[in-house]
Amino acid sequence: MTFNLAISFADLLLLLPEIFLTCWLCVVVIVDFACPRIPQERLAFLSVAGLLATLGCLAWFDLSHVSGALFGNMFVLDRMALFFKIFIVGATALVILTSVQYVDRFAFFRGEYYVLVVMSALGMMFMASANDLLSLFVSLEFSTLGFYVLVGYLREDLGSNEAGLKFFILGVFAAGLLAYGISLVYGETGKIVFSDMAPTATSGTIIGFLLIFAALGFKIGAVPFHSWIPDTYHGAPTPVTTFLSIAPKGAAFAILLRIFFVALATFKPVWVFLLVAVSILSMTYANIVAIAQRNMKRLLAYSGIAQIGNLLIGLAAGTKMGNDAILFYLLAYLFANIGAFAIVIAVGQAIGSEEIDDYSGLNRRSPFLAFAMLLFLLSLAGVPPLAGFIGKLYIFVAAMKEGLYTLITVGLINIVISMYYYLIVVKKMYINEPIDPSPVQISGTMKAVVYVGLAGTLVIGIYPQPVIDWVVGATVMFANFAGPSAVVTPPVPPFGG
User: Fold this and answer.
1) 198 Cβ contact partners less than 8 Å away, ≥ 6 residues apart
2) Do 267 and 398 touch, CB atoms closer than 8 A?
3) Range of the domain at 341
4) Which helix (H) or strand (E) holds 77?
5) What is the pLDDT of residues 278-327, one digit of tens each?
6) CA-to-CA distance for 227 and 250, rounded, in angstroms?
7) Residues 6 or more apart from 413 whose CB is under 8 A from it?
8) Widest CA span of the chain, in angstroms?
9) Residue 485, Cα to own-chain centre: how many angstroms?
10) Helix (H, G, I), strand (E, B) or coil at 362
């Protein structure tokens, strides 16, 4: 097996966003060490500036339809990779803005926090372009390395220590599954590039790919690979929880799409049943268990597991339309979820608690935060005319066109179940009396994140057509793999333009 690894300067332009962010990461490290007395807020804004510059470069690439492949097709830059990179970088910038005041709780290594966050984002950007088993393993472990440290960053907090230990142990176990699965697939096919595997894949590769799916299932938190999520989300610093709940899931779905629709395209009748089963388990288990939660971070943790079940509906559809729906749903989930966690951070800093009961009377203490949380929870539940409703509609239509009526029925039932525990929070905010009537203060950076979340949730819900056009173009590479439903024009939602 040989690869042509020779690349020209023009080829390096495909790596320009990653190269720039790597250099900017070095700048942040140098500034942190050279200026030990610099306020950590300036390091935060310096990190955000680098991420925004990277975001601008990625947007220019997307608008210019820049594409190509490097290192024998091990690294690909197509519109789908650009979508996920924009998703990851945008989410990372918002997470850093939510961290500005929270970082004051860290006794040590405040500057290193931003370095680790940006480093994890850099690893996930490489994941979005990974087109073979080797780059998949290296980029995934590179991005996870930062999370191992970030989850246990509150060194004096036993909950954070426990969360970090559990995440590390299960993360290493998932890495072992991934490495073993890769070895089985390579031993059977003699190939590592996904597109090269498609003609040589045999039934003997199924076990290897099942192990790879189990490892990626750990990253996205699908049942039965979800056991780390509640305790890790609960114990980790809340901005880290926010980061974990969004960016790694997008990066993992970038890999899953390439594996199922490129490497395993000929085995679609087999893997559809697997995805249907995991989707049903994830939605049903998470929504039922979420009802009993008394902590906001744990409730949002189980809500996230249920949202993964919804995303797997689109993957189970096995069509380009289903893939379009996944990308749209991820954007809707990004805005609602990061907005909800921003409010959890703001309320937690103001009252020193993250229990649901402490949200009692929030409408009297901060009408803005209560109203924003109401919209975010309703979007997660799938209530029109918010972005979450359009996302669920898009995914269900894709599944309906493939005849997955049982999966759709279970999904609709789970929407009703999720409404119950979301409305429990709403009831406490608007009906219950506040324990402490003093106003809840919110910083300027946190307000900015909440406003971005509200804008995305409302605009995408009311006028989704531009986003639909974007995601349809991003997944055009799958038109040849997804069967007869691949070229179906997406429905114009009832609130679309």
Assistant:
1) 262, 263, 264, 265, 266
2) no
3) 266-497
4) strand 75-77
5) 999 999 999 999 999 989 999 999 999 999 999 999 999 888 888 999 99
6) 19
7) none
8) 69
9) 26
10) helix
Q: Are 399 and 317 a contacting pair, CB within 8 Å?
A: yes
Beta-ladder partners of 70: 75
Whether 226 maps to a domain, the answer reads no
Specify whether the CB–CB gap between 149 and 183 falls below 8 A: no
Query: CA 228, 238, 341: angle at the middle one, nearest 5?
Result: 100
The CA-atom distances, in angstroms, between 22 and each of 122, 231, 300, 368, 441 are: 7, 32, 32, 38, 36
Note whether residue 250 is domain-resident: no
Q: Among residues 225, 402, 209, 244, which one has the least CA distance to residue 313?
A: 402
Going from the C-alpha of 374 to that of each of 92, 108, 307, the distances in angstroms are 24, 36, 18
Q: Which residues contact 406 (CB under 8 A, 6 or more apart)?
A: 276
DSSP label of 439: P
pLDDT at 483 over 70: no
64 within some domain: no
Distance CA 129, CA 61 (A): 14
Q: Per the structure, how many domains does the chain have?
A: 1
In a domain? residue 309:
yes
How many CB atoms neighbour CB 206 within 10 A? Answer: 18
Report the b/e string of 23-32 with b at 16+ CB within 10 A.
ebbeebbeeb
Rounded distance between C-alpha atoms, residue 313 and residue 282, angstroms: 11
Helix (H, G, I), strand (E, B) or coil at 368: helix
Inter-residue contact 446 to 342 (CB < 8 Å) = yes
pLDDT digits (tens, 9 = 90+) for 237-267: 899 999 999 999 999 999 999 888 888 877 7
Angle between the N-to-C axes of helices 206-220 and 133-151, in degrees from 0 to 180, rounded to the nearest 10: 30
Q: What are 46's two structure tokens? A: 């310096």
Distance CA 110, CA 245 (A): 22
Range with lowest mean pLDDT among 149-158, 385-394, 476-485? 476-485
Could you tell me which residues come within 8 angstroms of residue 142 by beta carbon, excluding any fewer than 6 positions away? 119, 122, 123, 126
Other CB atoms within a 10 A radius of the CB of residue 36 amount to 7
* CB 281 within 8 Å of CB 309: yes
pTM given for the model = 0.91
Picking from 207-216, 263-272, 379-388, which range would have the lowest pLDDT averaged per residue? 263-272
Alpha helices by DSSP H, 74-109: 79-99
